[in-house]
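Bug report

Summary: structure tokens for LPXTG cell wall anchor domain-containing protein differ between web form and batch submission.
Environment: batch mode, default settings.
Steps: 1) Submit the sequence below via batch. 2) Compare with the web form result.

Sequence submitted:
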Amino acid sequence: MLIVLEEKEMKNHRRVLVGSLASAALMSLFLVNNGSVKADEVVQPRQVQQSSEVRVTTNQDNAKKPNNDQWANPANYKDDIPVQVLGINDLHGNIDTTGKAYVGRGMHYNAGNVARLSSYLNNAESDFKEKNPEGNTFRVEAGDMVGASPATSSLLQDEPTMKSLKAMNVNIGTLGNHEFDEGLGEFDRIVEGKAPQKGQFNQEEQNYPHENSNLQIVISNVVNKKDQTVPFNWQPYLTKEVKAGNKSSKVGFIGVVTADMPKLTFAKNLKDYQILDPAETIAKYDRILQNQGVNAIVVLAHTGVSTYKGKTSGEAVDILKKLYQIDPNNSVDLYVAAHSHQYANGTVGRTKIVQANKFSMAYDDAIGYIDPKTNDFVNGSLITHVYPVMSPKEDKFTKADPKVEAIIKDAENRTSKITNSVIGKTTPGTEISTTLNDNKENAVGDLVVDAQLFEARKKGIQADFAITNGGGVRSNLNIENDGSIKWKSAQAVQPFNNQIQVFNLTGKQIYDVLNSQYVKNGERYYLVGGMRYAYTDTDDPSHPQKVAVMLDGNGKQFDLNKTYRVITSNYLVDSTAEFKGAKKVADVGIDTDLFVDYFKDQTAAGKLILAPELNRKFYLTKPQLDELLNKLKQETQVSKQGTTNNDLGEKNSQILDKTDKLVNKADETKTSEQEQAKKSEESTKIIYVFSKAKREENTLKVVNEPVGKNSSLATLTRSKSLNRNESKKASLPKAGAEDVSWISWLGLALTGLVSFFGLGIKKRN
């Protein structure tokens, strides 16, 4: 038996010639003599690629806009069908906001706004069809289009967002965790454009023109518990026909959401549903599609991924690796990722993977050519890029889409009476941002917990301290040029309408909550008010760091057996194992309202809103920790001889206060703008897991200065420079989220890969 194949008809690593040893020998003869027959004379089985052989590579994005050099040459594919997929993710109702985005190798300021995004999508499609007049374009989204949205959209139940998606011709999408925020029934309502029940929402929402979004939802791994069907008549997959002249084929679309959903939404939102394993579900429907003759397959997946410093990693990469384990012969060509709000462009095995940041700041552009004989993308033809949605200042030639701009303006007019009211004041030029320092602390988050503590105490509610998850802090605090702060700015930071409550927790429970941040592939980081703590390295690769010392608001060490009154959200208590068993003792209010009230109260008292000092979390080396514990022990002994508890608290707090200050300052000067932006983008979805690395020792000395409890009295004398950025490398936890420990570096030496895990954005994440 002699089998002859044309090179273009073999998909890279996807087909192998099978048969007897005699057939293989004949094949060798053919290769020597350049024989030729038609490819449709044989069915080519896919190449079996074991999971250990699955390579992860990173694709280059050097251009700000599409150009001819970035794609396969259409002249080489005249017998094939051109296909383009334009993708977006994690819009979160940010129809009129802009921000800082790192895409490819460049930083872009004031990126985003859906009216400009629409124009970029239109231009990308026009550019594609200019070179491929018979081309087929699909516009898709990978989840979290709604939820945790700014007021312009959220006050109208995100219907302006759905209307904008329709105007942009985004017509295939999947579920993200935030589509569950108000229940899937409410999401289905706005997808279908049905009117809400009378009195269910505010009058502006009741009056808003409701219309069908034309968005087809594909979701394969969310099923009804009672009968294992996909809810609301959505589909686990769908196929779309593509044509070029008299040639035709089909593209298959499969949708999945992260399996970490139980940690991302209220239990009540999942009570009727089962979340299936994403990789297993993709494998199932990939086989179904292949059996239907559909070999060009796109997965829309709300699972995180990141490309950073040349490495592509995250939950989505892990899912694809598992897919190759389950089915080395899978036919997934493109994986449009989401959830971790990061830039990504890579290849896992044979599968291209992309993610376009967040909030309309970027978009995915994938172009390839389908062979109508194999119904699959031609080998090497599918190329992916991610492009920024640049500001008018950076790109004066691209104008906002007037059709989408009108939708935004209408929504702004309907909500402006509330959103534009001034609630606070600060010094012009002040920045209060979500940018994280090395200890996973940011100014906006500290302001949030301070506000909750202040408002609770103002109401006469006894509380010791407040804690929130970093993912619940959704935005920088936007400040007007004159220093005024508007209602919409505060709401954008705390948009959830979660209940803020007081719970009784023991010191041990509090320790467990905070310590959970530092497990390998941890999924959350916390922000605290009214307390401080230090963490250090461990020798346990499953728990690379641990909380070492906790001090209360008076500077006293926590008593693990004592019960404390802790302010936090009902969401955290509902979704976090370490909070289980916490007893609610008081209701404080709604998160948005408390934050707004805090600004109003400070203004009424004649106070400016200022960025808190980032001094609540500290990293200590082991020698530093030993020295600290020794000093605390000495101070405790002194206290027994007559020093007051308050004096002791001051000294304990003083020891922590400046221990890390010089380290932070030195590191900040060495941290590039790119790394800072990376941290800012990760602030809604990532917890660092720190690597073991040799750290140069620092010495601690106490400086006797008469200052208050919250002031800094200890300083650090550095024997040598200590750059914690070199020993703490940002990573994505496996949950999609959603640094590598020493064991990961061992893996690096063995495989040449750094294993990253994509952090899942928690519901309040």
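Above is the batch result. After comparison, the two runs are identical; trailing whitespace caused the diff. The CA atoms of residues 700 and 716 lie 5 Å apart. The first strand starts at residue 56 and ends at 58.
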